[in-house]
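Worked example 3. Consider a protein that binds magnesium ion.
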Amino acid sequence: MNYHITTHCPNCFRASPSAVCPHCHFNRKDDIRHIHHLPLFTRLDKGYVIGRVLGEGGFAIVYAALREADGLAFAVKEYYPESLASRGLNNCTVQAKRNETERLAVWQKRFKEEAEHLRRCQDYPAIAGVVKRADLLEQNNTVYLVMERLQGCSLRTFLTEPKSAQWILTWLKPLLATFEQLHNRQIFHRDISPNNVFLTANNQPVLMDFGLAREGVRDSAMKSSAVGAGTEGFIAPEQMMNSANSRVDAHTDLYSLGGLIYMGLHGEPPPSAAHRVQGAKLKRCQAPDKVTAYLEKLAWHCLALDRDKRPENVQAIKREYGLFWQELKAEEKIISNPATKNINQKTIVPEFKHNEYDNASKISNIINNQEFVKNESQTEFYKLVGFFIFYALILLGVITWIALKEVNFGGY
Ligand SMILES: Nc1ncnc2c1ncn2[C@@H]1O[C@H](COP(=O)(O)OP(=O)(O)OP(=O)(O)O)[C@@H](O)[C@H]1O
Ligand SMILES: [Mg+2]
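Given these inputs, the predicted complex is written out as structure tokens:
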């Protein structure tokens, strides 16, 4: 199929003769395309067609994409650290800037490792709340991570002003559950920030962007948007030191989580660890209610500069704050009742005009089928063995019963 900017929508890829797509209502003018972006409707291996730019960070560009074979929508993340790379003459190939060949290759390797982390999250049983990886392509001298295309927007979009504690809790609880599963598998995210937590249409948080590659972008010699003030407040002090022996583990992710809660409460990120060491203070909530006070306590606990003073892991948070957690169940019922939604609820579900078609569940099924066929057949096998043993035991029981009866009759 041939796609063309004047005849097809760059968001949903359907025929669209007008600037505003009649199917998904995406306005072509909203596809901000720069010279370093892949040309619209570029074809990648395995039939992925590149659509509009969904976003761009310090080390990658994310595009909407369509897989021609089945017409499913994906998001494709192209490894492209702007400070190290440029495009070749064909507008597709990625080439190193002067003297940057080595670093471009080093961080490309990290990008691939990050993709491997995502794959590990899908190992059976899959970790809920992490974006699903569909494919990894290597072409144009770079790497493309193909993911499920999420519908919604990042937490950053919402955290521009203080929010209610109840609203924060709606995403905090599932996020903690995801952390728990990740940390139990010794997977540490390393880059929790409002940019990298996506809120889907049904208000579920989804983690994106494991920070392995980003740590490279933080490399001191590299000037990048990735080290902007907004992100700095979420980086634990031990991560900032960037030294080989600085330990990164659950404590580190929990520091960033504290930053998220803080930003939810205040509408601004906490001061960076570097500034805090020099005396910058965290803000306090004014006259907090019970739930807000609880969240503030948790945020401050997580944001302790001394890693040993932070909660050790999610279980520790549950232990320490568990009682309060229970009490909150009643409050939760109030939130989930549409009749009692507070004004902040209005901002929870954004308008999804641009992404009206929803293929998330189809993609999940496909990805799950690809990844877990083996596990499923194993489960089937164990089920069969279980049934066999169960019936064998019943048979044995019946035979024993008959035999005993025989003996008893013999007695008479
Ligand atoms: N799987 C996805 N589905 C839909 N949109 C996505 C997906 N992955 C990323 N995006 C969008 O692309 C944007 C850019 O992502 P990217 O990680 O490159 O940059 P960022 O998160 O804004 O910045 P940072 O460099 O701090 O991570 C995200 O903010 C998000 O809106
Ligand atoms: Mg990101």
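Take a moment to read the result before moving on. The longest helix spans residues 360-411. The CA atoms of residues 220 and 270 lie 21 Å apart.
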